Amino acid sequence: MRYLLAIYLLSISAVSFAKEKCDPSSIGVTDSSSEIERYFYTGTCHYRNKDYSLSVKNWEGLALLEAESASDEELKVDVLNNLGYMKFFGFGTEKDQKTAISYWREAVLLGHYEAEYHLCHAYADKKQPTYNLAKARKHCEKAKLIYKGKDDSNSEILSIINSYLEKIER
Known about the structure:
The chain is mostly helical. About 5% of the residues have low confidence. It is 72% helix and 0% strand. The chain folds into two domains: 79 residues; 59 residues, no CATH class. Helix 5 packs antiparallel against helix 6 and helix 5 packs parallel to helix 7. The longest helix is centred in the middle third of the chain and has 20 residues.
């Protein structure tokens, strides 16, 4: 009986640790989906599976495409933020903080609020080679305004922003 229970538990744990399938039908991409949607959702699936190099490959492919609709444009802006994160920390790609910051700046110009928070971190964290107090203050203050004004504000992120601002003011 113990052996059957052990086999049963192992089979359940194997299923729970299995990676999500990232083929078009598994992620809900259809023939009517745009090419940008295919790249975005495939890359996102690979990210959830921690196949970071595949997510970066898909998202970089998306970045080269022309948006055909407003929803495609939104996905492109999200990808700028995502690629910035991947490049800043070196997930699935070479660490390239200069390029990451340029992605985030472009995303901010296009209205992506999370990118402002990432710029706050990039400039306010003394451990990062991008540390710059003047830039940190500006981006952290803007990020704080954004996160305080959101209906679904993330208290953890707001706390981190406030922590950076307190350190900057010292």
